[in-house]
User: Which sequence fits this backbone?
């Protein structure tokens, strides 16, 4: 797999504010480096263009793999996953009051929470700690 040019990688990281565009984890507190993810995977003819790239933590990237669709746990229907370039995070997700758990607000949001497992135990634990020290701002 050809590596993206540095300028393209820098643009994606800057645009994402250094956070995973799915689970919103900050790269600065991750023990593994984040990936430049192809929203539409290369194996499905996804391009290297900025409109198809997102910053993703390793966990979200691994769970997403080559998927663009997932099952909405409420309706049981298969729907498209969250698309960081076309969708607004706040339209599909919300934080619980404590700011540690991501809730899916729409079929796409719920399917993405399930498929990418946005509330993995280590993530929820990290959010709890980051809230404590004022580094997790759910509304940011
Ligand atoms: Zn993530």
Assistant:
């Amino acid at each position: 797999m050809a590596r993206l040019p540095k300028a393209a990688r820098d643009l994606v990281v800057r645009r994402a504010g250094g956070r995973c565009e799915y689970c919103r984890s900050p790269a600065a507190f991750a023990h593994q480096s984040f990936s430049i993810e192809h929203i539409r995977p290369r194996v499905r003819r996804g391009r290297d263009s900025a409109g198809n790239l997102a910053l993703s933590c390793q966990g979200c990237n691994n769970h997403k793999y080559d998927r663009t669709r997932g099952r909405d746990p409420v309706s049981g229907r298969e729907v498209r996953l969250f698309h960081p370039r076309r969708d607004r995070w706040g339209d599909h997700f919300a934080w619980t009051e404590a700011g540690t758990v991501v809730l899916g607000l729409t079929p796409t949001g719920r399917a993405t929470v399930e498929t990418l497992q946005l509330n993995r135990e280590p993530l929820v634990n990290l959010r709890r700690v980051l809230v404590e020290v004022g580094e997790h701002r759910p509304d940011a």
Summary: The beta strands are 35-38, 53-56, 69-71, 78-80, 93-95, 102-104.
